[in-house]
From TrEMBL:
Residues 155-196 are annotated as: Disordered. This is DUF4188 domain-containing protein. It holds the Pfam family Monooxy_af470-like. Residues 165-196 have a biased composition (Low complexity). It comes from the Bacteria. InterPro entries: Dimeric_a/b-barrel, Monooxy_af470.
C-alpha cells in the first residue's frame, strides 16, 4: 500500500563507469532564528522539484536524510560532475539565485552564524565502489541506476569492487558493470569538489 515494492533477495546497483555523489545539507545552529533557517530548509525541495521536472540537467536520484534534530541533508547521484557544475552555476536555475542571496547576506553581515551550510562532492571511479541490497526496494544508487541480481557482479564485496563495465574493460561478455553505495564514496579515495 505504501512505499516502493520490495525486490526479493540480494541485489546490487547497475551503475557503470564513474559515479558522482553530492552530499549537501544544512545545520540549524540557533533554533530560535526561524527566519534565517526556514527559507534555506525550504530551498532544497524547490531545487529537487526543479531538477525532477528537467531530467536532462543530470540528477539521477536522491535520498533525503537527517543526522540529528539540527542537521538535514540530501545524498544526490549525478550523471557527471559537468552536469552538476552546470546546474549549480546556471543563472536560470534556483540554486544560482539562492546562493547569490546567501552570499549577499554574508557580505552585508546578516548571516550571524544561525545556519550552517555544507556540501561534499565525490567522483568515484569504477572499481572504487560496490553495493548490496537485501530485500530492499530500489534505494540510493540502485534507485538512480537500476538494480541487478547480486550474482551479476559477485556475491562478495571483493568481487563487486573488481568488476568492470564492458566499456571500461573491453570485455564483450555482456556482463553489467560496477555499482556504489553512498557510504563507500568517501572511503573510495574520491575527490572533493571546489565550492559551488
Amino acid at each position: 500500500m505504501f512505499g516502493k515494492p520490495v525486490t526479493a533477495g540480494r541485489t546490487t546497483a547497475a551503475a557503470e563507469g564513474d559515479v558522482v555523489v553530492l552530499l549537501i545539507g544544512m545545520r540549524i545552529n540557533h533554533f530560535w532564528a526561524v527566519h534565517h533557517w526556514v527559507p534555506l530548509f525550504l530551498a532544497m525541495p524547490r531545487m529537487l522539484l526543479e531538477l525532477r521536472r528537467d531530467p536532462g540537467r543530470g540528477l539521477l536520484g536522491h535520498v533525503l536524510l537527517t543526522a540529528s534534530p539540527r542537521t538535514y541533508y540530501v545524498v544526490q547521484y549525478w550523471e557527471s560532475k559537468e552536469k552538476l557544475y552546470a546546474y549549480a552555476s546556471s543563472p536560470d536555475m534556483f540554486h544560482h539565485r539562492a546562493w547569490a542571496i546567501v552570499n549577499r547576506k554574508e557580505k552585508a553581515g546578516k548571516v550571524r552564524q544561525h545556519v550552517g551550510l555544507w556540501h561534499e562532492t565525490y567522483v568515484v571511479p569504477e572499481g572504487g565502489y560496490e553495493s548490496i541490497y537485501a530485500d530492499m526496494p530500489a534505494f540510493g544508487l540502485a534507485a538512480a541506476h537500476g538494480q541487478l541480481p547480486l550474482e551479476r557482479r559477485g556475491r562478495r564485496a571483493k568481487d563487486r569492487f573488481a568488476h568492470r563495465s564492458t566499456s571500461a574493460s573491453g570485455d564483450t561478455s555482456g556482463a553489467a558493470s560496477g555499482s556504489v553505495g553512498a557510504t563507500t564514496a568517501a572511503a573510495a579515495g574520491a575527490t572533493a569538489s571546489e565550492d559551488a
